[in-house]
Amino acid sequence: MRLRRPLSILLGILGAGLLQPPSRRPRPVQKRGRRRWRTPAALYALISHPLPRALLGWDLVRRDVRWVPVAPGTRCVEVGSGGAFYTARLARHLGRGGLLVALDPEPAGVPKAVRRRLRGRPAARVAPLGGDGQRLPLADESVDVLFYGYSLEEMPDPPGALGEAHRVLRPGGHLVLFLWRPVMRGRRRIATEAIAAALFEAQSVRRGPQNIRARYRKPARPAVPAQSPEAEKAGTAWATPF
Ligand SMILES: C[S@@+](CC[C@H](N)C(=O)[O-])C[C@H]1O[C@@H](n2cnc3c(N)ncnc32)[C@H](O)[C@@H]1O
C-alpha cells in the first residue's frame, strides 16, 4: 500500500499525457477566449474500458456509484452520459422504481451494452435525453440527484452549468461531481469548486492525484414563516444564488 500513491501519481502523469491533444492535431475549439476540450470520439472506446479506467483514475464502477444517494423512486440525471461507463451500474444502483435520465448533447439511445447488462436485472428505467448541461431541458426543482462523471470539465462554462444544476435540483437534492484533474485545471477548477461550495453544502469531497470526487447537497428551503423579515431575506438569497 506504500507504493499506491507514487504509482497513482505515475499513472496520473501517463493519463494526463494520454488525454492531452498531440500538438500536431488541431487545437481544441476556442470559445469566448477560452480553450474548450472535447474528448475525441476515438478515445471513448479506450477510456470507457474498465481496465484503463481502473488504472488511470481508480475508477471502480461498483464503488463509484455509491456516491449517489438512493431512496425509493429516485429521479437521477446522468449529465454527459456519452461513454456510458456508469449508466448500467447507476441504473442498477437506483433500483426498480427509480428513473435514470441519460443526458448528452449527442444521445445515441440506450446503448446496446447497457441494455445487455440490465436484461433481467432489477434496475431503474433508463431514458436517453438530448441536451446541453449548460441549459438543462428540465423543470425547476424536478430532480433528486445530478451525476456528472467527468463531463462538467468538457463544458465551456462549468460555473454556469452549476447554476443550472442548482435550478433543476429539488431542495435537499444531491449533486455528485467527478472531475478529471488533467482536464479541469488551475483557475477554472478553483472557480468551479468555489461556485459549487457557494451554491451547495459539501457533504463529502475526496481528492486523488487524478480525480476529485464530491457530493454536495442543495440546502432545503429555510423553515421560517412566510411574512417574517427572515423569510424575506431567505427568499432573496434563494432567488440570487451568485
Ligand atoms: C469524458 S466523457 C464522459 C462520459 C461518461 N460520463 C463516462 O464516464 O464514460 C464527457 C461527456 O460529456 C459530454 N458533454 C460534453 N459537453 C457537454 C455539455 N455541454 N452538456 C452535456 N454533456 C456534455 C460528452 O458528450 C461526453 O459524453
Notes on the structure:
The chain has nine helices and nine strands. The protein starts with a helix and ends with a helix. It is 36% helix and 22% strand. It has helices at 4-19, 41-47, 50-57, 61-64, 87-94, 112-118, 158-168, 186-199, 229-239, and strands spanning 30-31, 34-35, 75-79, 99-104, 125-130, 143-149, 169-180, 201-207, 211-217. Helix 7 packs parallel to helix 8 (186-199). With 242 residues, the protein is α/β, with parallel strands linked by helices. The protein is globular and about 45 Å long. A seven-stranded mixed sheet has the order 5-4-3-6-7-9-8, sandwiched between helices. It has a two-stranded antiparallel ribbon with strand order 1-2. The protein has one domain: Rossmann fold, CATH 3.40.50. The structure holds S-adenosylmethionine. S-adenosylmethionine binds next to loops. InterPro entries: Methyltransf_11, SAM-dependent_MTases_sf. Keywords: Methyltransferase, Transferase.
Supply the CATH architecture: 3-Layer(aba) Sandwich
Into how many domains do the coordinates divide?
1
Q: Assembly type of the shown chains?
A: single chain
Q: Which stretches are low in confidence, meaning pLDDT under 50 for 5 or more residues running?
A: 7-33, 234-242
Computed over alpha carbons, the radius of gyration is: 19 Å
Class from helix and strand fractions: alpha/beta
The third-level CATH topology is Rossmann fold
Query: Can you count the helices?
Result: 9
CATH class: Alpha Beta
What is the percent of helical residues?
Answer: 25-40%
- Would you count the extended β strands for me? 9
Bound molecules: S-adenosylmethionine
Helix-strand pattern: HEEHHHEHEHEEHEHEEH
